[in-house]
Amino acid sequence: MEHLPPVTSPYEPVLVPYIADEEYDGLDFADYPTRKGFDIDSLLEGDFKNKSPDEIAAFLQTWLYFGLIHEIFKVKLGSDLVREDAMGGKWITTEKLPRFLWHVKALVDKEKKLPEYTPEYVQKRNERITNALRTSFHMWEGFQKLGQRNPMPPEVALGIQILAITLQVGLTNLLRERAKKGNWMAVPWDRNGRWTLTRNKWLEDRMIEQGWCPVVLEQIMQRDFNIVDLYYCSLLGPPVRKLDHRECEKDETDCGAMRNFETEHGTHMVEGCECEFLIVNSSKLGDIIAKGEIPVLHLCQEDEKPVLEVVSSASEGLEYTAVSHVYVSVRIVYSGR
To answer: Could you say which of 84, 123, 189, 247 is the most buried, measured as most Cβ atoms within 10 Å of its Cβ?
Structure first.
């Protein structure tokens, strides 16, 4: 995952073990299982025959990781994507992947100037990429459906998923052509999302165990994010405030732990004070921010009790004072105790 923007002191990064037992043979991608004596239909049904889970996992990493790279670019990147630690352990590394993609861009730019770069050539190339991404996606998804019987370690599965998404997004930006009117023409592999729309239950469960709220994770995934973005967020670490999210449901609009936050977690300035804890409506706050407006907190009274309202800075007739370096401004109108 080293191709992602660096994070200072990343929080529990996922390390992907290198478990492939041989190099990819460089032949046709779709027929690789047959050449290696694997019956994919049986494997997807959980019938491993005389193969051990470790053998199957090694085969799948060779095929769906290194084989995918070879099928798309027709080059081998075996040792370039493997590092060895001080203890002799081998791990997948994507540190050189961005450099390789830039190299591909330079080659494509040169290729476009050649006479053989015809619409037929582009169509054939795009079909090869589309088929490779489609095949790898269906295989990966099929094994994920096996649940506990999935022979792929979750770290290996996540590594394949992030590689495929990176390649799909990178190839879309490298290879789509500009139309005469100036708009970008869609490439065939990007029309229905496929890899970029996949979820990863293991990663989401892992983040929840680390202290993330399921509601927050769902909100992140609903904002045109994919699993690469979610993993990158996980490197920042969970919220500093430790709350119990066991009652939070991902289909809710607000974090239940914050909604039920008890007053004893606050700090009273006067001994014996029993004032109520005021909570901002986070959904309304988010709606205002999404519109590009500034939320203003309005402290007022309802039934002789203090209430913290959220209003938009665009509200007609609203007067407020914005304090430097404070994003949400506060207008105090309640003068009670």
So the answer is: 189
Q: Which helix (H) or strand (E) holds 305?
A: strand 305-312
Q: 335 with 301: CB under 8 angstroms? A: no
Rounded distance between C-alpha atoms, residue 135 and residue 60, angstroms: 12
Alpha-carbon distances of 92 from 15, 77, 80, 186, 198, rounded to whole Å: 8, 11, 9, 31, 21
Cα angle, residue 162 at apex, residues 159 and 165 outer, rounded to 5°: 145
Tell me the β-bridge partners of 299.
Answer: 308, 332
Tally of CA atoms within 13 A in the half-sphere of 7 that contains its CB:
15
Chain centre distance of CA 258: 25
At 202, list the tokens.
């293991």
Per-residue tokens: 194: 């496929």
Task: Give the angle subtended at the CA of 36 by the CAs of 31 and 38, to the nearest 5°.
Answer: 85
* Joined tokens for residue 141: 């998804």
CA dist 52 → 21, 156, 207, 231 (Å): 13, 16, 30, 30
| 3-class SS of residue 84 | strand
Q: How many helices (H) and strands (E) does the chain have?
A: 12, 5
Cα–chain-centroid distance for residue 83?
24
With contact defined as beta carbons under 8 Å apart, do 250 and 215 qualify?
yes
Could you tell me the mean pLDDT of each successive run of 10 residues in the chain, 337 residues long? 88 94 90 93 90 94 94 78 92 88 85 89 90 94 93 96 92 78 73 83 92 86 82 88 78 71 56 75 84 84 82 82 54 39
Packing angle between helix 154-175 and helix 227-235, nearest 10 degrees?
Answer: 120
Question: H or E segment at 298?
Answer: strand 295-302
Q: Is residue 308 within 8 Å of residue 297, measured between CB atoms? A: yes
